[in-house]
Amino acid sequence: MARYRGPRLRICRRLGDLPGLSRKTSKKQAPPGEHTEKIRKPSEYAVRLEEKQKLRFNYGINEKQLLKYIKIAKKVQGSTGQVLLQLLEMRLDNTVFRLGMAPTIPAARQLISHGHIYVNHNAVSIGSYQCKPGDLITVKNQIKSQNLVTKYLSFPGLANIPSHLELNASKFMGKVNGIIEREWIALQLNELLVVEYYSRK
Questions:
Q1: Alpha-carbon distances, residue 17 vs 30, 56, 197 (angstroms)
Q2: Residue 160 binned pLDDT confidence (cut-offs 50, 70, 90)
Q3: How far apart (Å, rounded) are the C-alpha atoms in residues 170 and 113?
Q4: Which residue numbers delimit the RNA-binding S4 domain (predicted)?
């Protein structure tokens, strides 16, 4: 996957607070670029594009993956935007991040790809793995893995664990109890604009 490896704070300055991408905050308030003083009112397309980019950078997915999630969400009954967010939130890398086992989603993806995370007692090395209600997420029973997660658990990326997740920090264990509700999604976003962006293409 062609992941974004550039400066993360630049993206946060342009798109606003992205809790999944970086914990740092910039001292600069203006958006990046040398022509920031000449900002005009953005077009409707620009507004939709910005919302779509927020999703992409926060969850660390590329255009092809996001399009795939949109197609799946359209086939499911209910609000397409809400289903899309639920699909992205139930990814394993995001679930590990929301449990507090990693400070950001890229850090969670690294933990997973290096084999530190088990799902239902089976090693899973794919960050995009879709978690289901009832899944048990555990840390590999090795001192190195547990020390790494202990360090992250003492400084979690987000203050609260969502209601659909349950964490037992002493046993390095998390459980998915259900599907996330809209109010627990940390990203400030209008998901309908993302759906509109793809429906007009």
A1: 13, 13, 21
A2: confident
A3: 23
A4: 90-154
Burial 25-56 (b: 16+ CB within 10 A, else e): eeeeeeeeeeeeeeeeeeeeeeebebbbbbbb
Cα–Cα distance for residue pair 164/95, rounded to 1 Å? 10
Checking if the pLDDT of 1 tops 50, the result is no
Closest residue by Cα to residue 96 from 52, 137, 133: 137
Contact indicator for 153, 161 with CB cutoff of 8 Å: no
What's at 44, amino acid-wise? E
The segment(s) of the chain belonging to CATH 3.10.290.10 are 91-178
Q: What is the DSSP letter of 109?
A: H
Residue with tokens 């109890």: 177
Q: Which among 66, 77, 89, 76 is positioned nearest to 178, based on CA atoms?
A: 89
- What pLDDT band is residue 79 in, cutting at 50, 70 and 90? confident
Which one-letter amino acid corresponds to residue 8?
R
Q: What's the token pair of residue 162?
A: 């969502």
Return the CATH fold of 8-87+187-199.
Answer: Ribosomal Protein S4 Delta 41; Chain A, domain 1 (1.10.1050)
SS3 content of the chain, % helix, strand, coil (to 5): 45, 10, 45
CA distance 110 to 117: 10
